Amino acid sequence: MTDTHYPSIPLPDYKEYPAEEMIRRSREFYEEIKRRRTVREFSRREVPLEVIQNCLRAAGTAPNGANMQPWHFVVVTDQEMKKKIRAATEEVEKEFYEKRAPDYWLEALAPLGTDANKPYIEDAPVLIAIFTQLHTVMPDGSKKKHYYLAESVGIATGMLITALHHCGLVTLTHTPQPMRYLREILGRPKHESPYLLLVAGYPSEDCRVPVIEKKPLEEIATFI
Ligand code: IYR
User: Fold this and answer.
1) 0.90 exceeded by the pTM?
2) What is the residue with the minimal CA distance to atom 7 of ligand 1?
């Protein structure tokens, strides 16, 4: 049998911290990340594209199935394209709010005050349409299967949201259902499926957010 392993090297760039420093870093990171809020009112101010590019690079380091990196990110800053995406999204959302959503779902959403109007899709400077990829198309046209799509892309998306927050930007994780229209509008191939539309930018000056609470540690974790 031929050796198909990747060549290996000693773990590069690993940093160990003394326990005290580790505790301080964990506390500081928690303080930093707990300021993150999902925002629905965006300023039209532009953001430096390099920030988005670096945050995407960060997302692209996410752990994933068999290192197939089964994701694709489409960054939309073009106003006409945003307008198109807004119109298509509002159509889907109108159908959701008026017909498809069961009462219990509408009741769960009522405290958030969301509806089918999505002005932020046009206001925010950046939309990042995130796609899962079923396979890689090899140069000879053959297909190389991808694994754990939802897990991999979910982790990468979490890292992207964290990176954008770290840079002082706000986001909205938007998941209109069904999202197939995004593939068509953005001209993505059939083996890619829209996973989430991430809206990113600065909050509007009068941006407000609901008063919500996160479950305490005791409720979300068990130590055995
Ligand atoms: N996609 C719809 C509905 C919606 C669903 C959930 I669950 C939310 O947490 C928020 C909204 C919308 O974006 O309005």
Assistant:
1) yes
2) 109
